[in-house]
Amino acid sequence: MTLEDVYACSARKSFDYRVLHEVVCALADLPPPDEALLAFLTVDETLTDMADDLFDYEKDVRKNSFNVLRGVAHAVGAERAPLELATRIGALERQHEALLQALPAAQREAFCAS
């Protein structure tokens, strides 16, 4: 498994959030969220899942579940994995902030207030 494979798998773990967005909009008879908001939420959800993986590492290993840190360790080696994952998280955090700042003020304020 390559590092790109690991990050692709990690990003796809959050698909349930995106399905939930669609279901809520459909049930509430709302238009789908705009692309800028969805792009922001995708990065936000990816970061949330990565945090969960770090917290649940030992449990995921025992259950043989996908875990981003475990995948990165297999892809680049155990010694390089923490720095590699920290670099990836840093890049996602910068993207997250840029996407947040690009949102309309009301959406940005709603996110920051939560």
Provide structural commentary.
With 114 residues, this protein is mainly α. Helices cover 80% and strands 0% of the residues. The protein starts with a helix and ends with a helix.
Summarize the helix and strand pattern as letters. Answer: HHHHHHH
Residues in helices, as a percent range: over 70%
End-to-end gap: 37 Å
Main pleated-sheet profile: none
How many individual β-strands?
A: 0
Q: What is the C-alpha radius of gyration, as a whole number of Å?
A: 16 Å
Q: Say what oligomer this is.
A: single chain
> Segments where pLDDT lies below 50 for 5+ residues?
none
Count of helix runs: 7
- What share of the residues does DSSP label as strand, in percent? under 5%
Q: Gist?
A:
This protein is an all-alpha fold.
